[in-house]
Amino acid sequence: MSRARVIIADKEKDFRHNLKEILRYNGYLVVGEAEEAQGLLQQAFQLSPDLIIIARDLPGNEGMHAVGIIEEHRLAPVVIVGFPGEDMMEMARMPGVYGVLTKPLQDEMVVPVLEMAMAFFERMTHLEKEAKTLRRTLEERRLVERAKSLLMEKRGMTEKEAHRYLQKLSMDRCVTMGRVAKEIILKLGKEEG
Fold this sequence. Notes:
Order of helices and strands: EHEHEHEHEHHH
Number of helices: 7
Strand content: 5-15%
Helix content: 55-70%
Number of strands: 5
Distance between the termini: 65 Å
């Protein structure tokens, strides 16, 4: 059973109570409830939930403003709760929305939607971290190549000598080759000017 920490945000107390019971029965831990957007955002930042369930018609959430803030800070995946007559596809396409439920709730649909939302959010977070690492690695390689080029041009080194020189400086100073490369670029770049 999941022990995911959940915040429920809906203006209807009865709906929150019913959803809370479904969640508790299925092993979720409801850490917060809100009946308007401001309270939801305060709780989201303070409680670090694993999942946030938000009613489409939550007071203070016009234009799904709260969802945008939650997404911007990558606080947790959001599942939107709406009514069957609303454009569910439009809600599902919104940034930060990882699942959609409809009122009245169908008990058997709640857990699969929530679990899928958390799984997609986890994958997205993992991919973002991986992309950030790859960008940093690419930037470091670009700097190393630029520094090697300057060492070859200004100091008459071969590419192999320039690379070994950067490696030695990196090891001697206990810093990354990217940092050494930046220093070389700054130093040799000043000699040009």
